[in-house]
Amino acid sequence: MDDLRIAPLVGIVGCLAVLLALGAPYVLVEDAGGVGLYYGSGAVNPLLAALFAMVTLIALAAGREGRSDPAMAAGVALVLGAAITVIALVWALTARVDVIAIDTAHRWIVAGVSVLVPAGSAWFARALGLV
Predict the structure, then answer these.
(1) Residue 41 DSSP code
(2) Quick one: which of 26, 92, 109, 120 has the fewest CB in 10 Å?
């Protein structure tokens, strides 16, 4: 198994899963203003995690394809992946679920899939021999 190809792919899939999970309420809920209120009700807005997920996705893809230094890409992805997970977890613990009609498990799904990003990034760093 080629860890240098699969490990960043796990992180990329995690980034896409975070973006998909955070974008789902905009598609599933009719009241888009309610979604903004839902995301703004926690201690931190999880859309910051979406921004970090986009940057991490680019870093992992560039490191995987050798377009940037893989060690630098793995380090950036690991730090941003940890930030994504912390942001998602803090938001999941503090968000109000009564502001829109959405399943209460949504916030835990976001927090759960966010773990894939630092896991894939750590695996990539280990495959490069950095840790």
Answers:
(1) T
(2) 26
Helix (H, G, I), strand (E, B) or coil at 67: coil
Rama region for 66: left / alpha / beta (φ>0; ψ in -120 to 50; rest): left
pLDDT tens digits, residue range 75-125?
999 999 999 999 999 999 999 888 887 888 999 999 999 999 999 999 999
- The pTM (predicted TM-score) of the whole model is 0.94
- DSSP secondary structure letter of residue 97: S
Range list of H helices, 1-131: 3-28, 32-40, 47-65, 70-94, 106-114, 116-127
